[in-house]
Amino acid sequence: MKVFGICGYSGSGKTTLLEAMIALLTARGLKVSLIKHAHHGFDIDKPGKDSWRHREAGAGEIALITDKRWVLMHEARNEEPPQLVDILERLSPCDLVLLEGFKRAVHPKIEVHRPSLGKPPVWPEDCDIVAVASDQAIDCALPRLDLNDPEQVADFVLKHVGLK
């Protein structure tokens, strides 16, 4: 599986870009998976539901299975979160795994940078960033991609990972 990341500050447009890219890539016949890193807690379960009650009772893993989708929830009670490589090993085979976030992990990535957010660019400090997608012209030694052109970004990613 090829792995490529999209990183940037909150509000920069990572999710919107990835959503468009995934639609474009799957329309081209590629099988795409995504792993998102969240810095805050989240819960896909609902209080009172059977799975929530089982988790609250102490179950370490709970699988929910329907005819349309399935999910495996793992409770990290007194454990460190898994490393990215551990999650990659659990994924079903696909052509491309896109990562959202994981800006400190070692893998090729594009930084989504919006100067209007007033945040400094990450690319000068991260040698794994291979291009910058921005909505404005910026002074950058790396290839600059148009943030508003997801097809251009998708083509860059495919070429970089050797799928085009």
From TrEMBL:
Pfam families: MobB
SUPFAM superfamilies documented for this protein: P-loop containing nucleoside triphosphate hydrolases
Alphabetical GO biological process terms: Mo-molybdopterin cofactor biosynthetic process
Annotated Molybdopterin-guanine dinucleotide biosynthesis protein B (MobB) domain residues: 3-135
InterPro entries, alphabetized: MGD_biosynthesis_adapter, MobB_dom, P-loop_NTPase
Molecular function as annotated in GO: GTP binding
Protein name in UniProt: Molybdopterin-guanine dinucleotide biosynthesis adapter protein
Organism this protein belongs to: Denitratisoma oestradiolicum
